[in-house]
Design a protein that fits this description.
389 residues, alpha/beta, Aminopeptidase, 2 domains, 5-stranded mixed sheet, 23% strand
Length: 389
């Protein structure tokens, strides 16, 4: 799949949406960049009371990263010289944001926000949709609706007359590598007990609408589109992963605003799954981490289930092309993808509804921990409120 030149969510669980959005009141001031400074800082929140305030910057609502840190129970550190903020969990896991950048890292994995981090007075700010639809589902996995993952659809990109990217004077075609990798992923998932569907199993052309239509018909629990990348710069290499961006915010690398489409009801699930999958792939291969990105490619945009498109490497990079053609490396990629599927399946598995045995108290299901034991915050936040002058 041809990639642009390299450079630098719908709803949360009902409770979080109610608390974070429905009680919002419009700010009493104009855009934050033009607003006069507040006359008096708001009173600090009482213990166990987590209030997220917002200000409006460029017609978008932004939240204070220091308040987000307090909400999660994380340590907040503002590195003014480096213009970045680090949120550190009690387990010393870090989330790093940089002023005027859309890139952030969480537990060492790179991801791209819809809007750059902004500054208001002496605070760095995170846009509300990026918090609700991207960061929060990764940190607080318990907010995502539980669902059983039994079936996966694998979509080998391109095929037939559509070669995809090519390299080595046309001797290496993306469509063939996509099918090889997809087949390995499917075989391994079947060995692990999943039902596997394919959009193609041979060198045949399949239109983008037909791929999404197949998912709509067969109703898999997850959808993975398999691709290899290419770039004009042969030095560019690494793995990147795409999920659909939320409606109303721009797609990665463009000013195109996301549509309201079948994929958006799975924004939070996609965010968590993408983080888990990219973590699995980078940890397994040690490839360059090009990050989790959100863009409404047709095949993920129109697929009515959690969906992602993975670019496994660059055919335009000789060393990476050689690896992508190697059976052992393909097997490593397939195992990493299967592990990524296992990870989301385990996290989202509904609690058992079996009644307790006679004479034993009903056990409470433990709160699901986010990846790496990042702790859940003590309580949901109170209603966000605008900073008033």
């Amino acid at each position: 799949m041809q990639n642009p030149p390299a450079h630098p969510t719908c709803r949360l669980a009902a409770l979080v949406t109610l608390l974070l959005l429905s009680a919002m009141t419009p700010p009493a001031h104009a855009a934050a960049s033009a607003a006069p400074p507040p006359k008096k800082a708001p009173a600090p929140a009482k213990p166990n009371q987590h209030v997220l305030h917002y200000v409006t910057i460029n017609k978008r609502r932004y939240l204070y990263l220091r308040e987000i840190a307090a909400f999660y129970g994380f340590h907040y550190q503002y590195h003014r010289m480096d213009k970045n903020v680090t949120l550190t969990s009690p387990q010393k896991e870090k989330i790093v944001f940089t002023f005027q950048s859309q890139l952030f890292t969480i537990k060492g994995i790179t991801a791209s926000l819809s809007y750059p981090v902004q500054r208001y007075r002496d605070d760095l700010m995170l846009e509300t949709t990026d918090f609700q639809e991207f960061l929060d589902p990764i940190v607080r996995t318990a907010i995502i609706p539980r669902r059983t993952i039994r079936s996966v659809m694998i979509d080998p990109g391109h095929g037939g007359t559509d070669q995809g990217a090519t390299a080595a004077k046309g001797k290496v075609e993306e469509k063939a590598l996509n099918l090889q990798i997809a087949t390995r992923i499917g075989n391994l998932l079947r060995q692990r007990g999943y039902i596997v569907h394919y959009t193609r199993t041979k060198d045949t052309a399949v239109t983008l609408p037909a791929r999404s239509a197949a998912a709509a018909k067969l109703k898999p629990d997850l959808f993975i589109s398999v691709h290899c990348n290419s770039h004009a710069d042969p030095k560019i290499n690494g793995i990147e992963l795409f999920i659909a961006n939320p409606a109303g915010v721009p797609s990665y690398g463009t000013t195109t605003i996301g549509k309201d489409c079948p994929s958006v009801k799975f924004n939070t699930t996609n965010a968590l799954w993408a983080f888990l999958m990219q973590s699995s792939l980078i940890n397994a291969t040690k490839a360059t981490d090009r990050g989790v990105k959100r863009k409404q490619f047709a095949v993920v945009r129109e697929t009515p289930t959690p969906a992602m498109l993975i670019e496994f490497g660059f055919l335009s990079n000789a060393a990476e092309r050689k690896k992508l053609q190697d059976a052992k490396y393909q097997a490593k990629l397939a195992a990493a993808v299967a592990d990524g599927v296992d990870s989301i399946a385990k996290l989202l598995q509904p609690p058992s509804k079996a009644p307790p045995a006679r004479g034993t108290p009903a056990a409470r299901a433990p709160a699901r921990r986010p990846p790496g034991n990042i702790p859940l915050p003590p309580k949901p936040p109170a209603s966000p409120a605008s900073r008033k002058p």
